[in-house]
Amino acid sequence: MARATLPWRIGHGFDLHRLEPLAPAGDGRPLIIGGIRIEHDLGPVGHSDGDALLHAVTDAILGALGEPDIGELFPDTSPKWKGADSGIFLQEAVSRMDSAGYELGNLDATIILQKPKIAPHKDAIRTHLAQQLGIEAARVNLKGKTHEKLDALGAGRGIAVHALALLVKKGILEHDR
Ligand code: CDP
Ligand code: ZN
User: How many angstroms separate the CA atoms of 21 and 157, rounded?
Assistant: First the structure.
């Protein structure tokens, strides 16, 4: 379907990964959030590196564009993406956004993680994510949230991320002129 040429396009992304003990005890990969390694005794199970923040952000951008989602572009059945750096997925979304004539206005994400606390790592993740997106850190916002010990997420057995991205048609923002 043709994409309507709107001045703004909003997109939502959600991702969830099970957290399990790290290898060799379990199948958990090192915990990486937004490309930043965080020390924890559990890590995500996933085909790629399991970076739930990058996956949610990638899907938010793809969703805003009306493009196929991350799993359609990078099937988890393909050996090519086994253990892949999720930055590759994000770069594809950014490149599609650029080709479509949009730039990222701002991004807001909520990371649901019982533990560890995101707060001490927030600046590092934010700076790194903004770099990957090619925008200033002021346009990226992150929030950490526990799951109030409820359900599997609350038992610390998973990480979930919601992300919203607002894309702006190039030429509209002050700095474009
Ligand atoms: O206080 P409230 O019930 O709204 O939230 P919470 O889930 O108990 O988390 C309290 C605060 O801790 C959050 O607002 C975040 O600033 C921080 N937090 C964090 O840094 N990392 C987490 N994994 C969870 C929460
Ligand atoms: Zn994921």
Answer: 10
We report the CATH number of the domain holding residue 159 as 3.30.1330.50
What atom of ligand 1 comes closest to residue 146's alpha carbon? 7
Residues 6 or more apart whose CB falls under 8 angstroms from that of 120 comprise none
Place of tokens 């739930």: 52
Q: pLDDT tens digit string along 129-157?
A: 999 999 999 999 999 999 999 999 999 99
User: How far, in Å, from the CA of 170 to the mean position of ligand 2?
Assistant: 29
State if residue 149 touches ligand 1 by the CB under 6 angstroms criterion.
no
> Is 94 a member of any domain?
yes
Peptide bond into 24 cis (omega under 30): yes
